[in-house]
Design a protein that fits this description.
By secondary structure, this protein is mostly helical. It is built from ten helices and two strands; from the N terminus they run E-H-H-H-H-E-H-H-H-H-H-H. The protein has one domain: Up-down Bundle (Rhopdopsin 7-helix transmembrane proteins), CATH 1.20.1070. About 70% of the residues lie in helices and about 0% in strands. It has a two-stranded parallel ribbon. Helix 4 packs antiparallel against helix 5 and helix 4 packs parallel to helix 7.
């Protein structure tokens, strides 16, 4: 393994701040207006802005299919976080921290959602429901920054002597993705993504993960081979886990069109999330462990 990295320096911090401001503005409007525009079958009526003030048209499920699968997501993501943090680390601390924070944010979102669906379904206009729902959706918003930070650190894993990059990538500063998380958590907390149907808040917020998701996919493609770090199946697993969430928006629109029970809709959505989030957590753990082992081999050889 050499000191060559896919990520290369180039722009100044001031230039990155300008890019960040433009990116946040664009992504905010993308999240706010793309979901209602893609509700081709049922129309945009569910995406009615309410700023956490609900009426009798609000739909909020209280069945075990919803909160039960939320609890499963809490357990699975907590386990993945524990597995990631148990990897012995000497060098790739930021990648480990960002990966653990990513799956932890999914666990926190699921726990807050489970409590709301299980116990607070009849208390939507109370301060404690609004606080927990902000935490639920805000954790998903913050996860976008952790995704981007994982991409940063994957791009900085040194190449081995036989691998050349397909193309160089700019080295995005760490503050870029930290501010990304803070910004979208704030957007959600002040209610800018609050819809009549609270479940739709998640879809708006999920769209904001599109740029960091795209960035990680580009990082994976930028390297001709990851074989010195992980088996090819884990590269594919990470890509599938990142892209699987794309089916949620059209899937929710179809489920609403079919007028299926709310619990069945949420069962489908949570099943997709379970598969996508598990794939992300498992594959990122393999990248961390593989990068550490590859670096240890280099250290021993030198």
């Amino acid at each position: 393994m050499t000191t060559t990295k896919i990520a290369q320096s180039g722009l100044s911090d001031q230039q990155w701040r300008i890019i960040l401001a433009v990116s946040l503005t664009f992504t905010y409007f993308l999240g706010r207006y793309l979901p209602p525009m893609t509700a081709f079958l049922t129309g945009p009526q569910l995406y009615t802005y309410v700023n956490y003030v609900y009426d009798d048209k609000t739909v909020f499920d209280d069945t075990i299919l919803t909160y039960g699968t939320d609890y499963i997501l809490v357990a699975s993501n907590s386990y993945l976080c524990w597995r990631i943090l148990r990897v012995p680390i000497k060098r790739f601390h930021v990648l480990q921290w960002a990966s653990a924070a990513l799956v932890a944010s999914f666990a926190v979102a699921s726990l807050a959602g489970a409590i709301c669906h299980h116990f607070l379904y009849a208390s939507l206009n109370t301060w404690y429901f609004r606080l927990l729902w902000r935490i639920c959706v805000g954790s998903v918003g913050a996860a976008g920054g952790f995704l981007g930070l994982c991409g940063n650190e994957l791009a900085r894993i040194p190449l081995d002597s036989t691998t050349a990059p397909r193309f160089p990538l700019p080295r995005i500063p760490t503050f870029f993705w930290i501010l990304w998380s803070v910004f979208f958590f704030g957007v959600i907390y002040v209610g800018l993504y609050s819809m009549r149907n609270p479940a739709c808040d998640i879809f708006l917020t999920g769209v904001t993960q599109a740029p960091p998701t795209f960035y990680i996919c580009v990082v994976l493609l930028a390297r001709r081979s990851w074989s010195s770090i992980v088996a090819e199946k884990y590269v594919r697993l990470l890509a599938i886990g990142l892209l699987a969430n794309c089916i949620l928006l059209p899937g929710y629109d179809l489920l609403n069109y079919l007028n299926l029970p709310d619990g069945v809709r949420n069962l489908f959505l949570h099943t997709v999330l379970f598969c996508a989030w598990t794939a992300q957590g498992l594959s990122l753990r393999e990248f961390i462990e593989g990068a550490e082992k590859a670096q240890e081999s280099v250290d021993k050889a030198s």
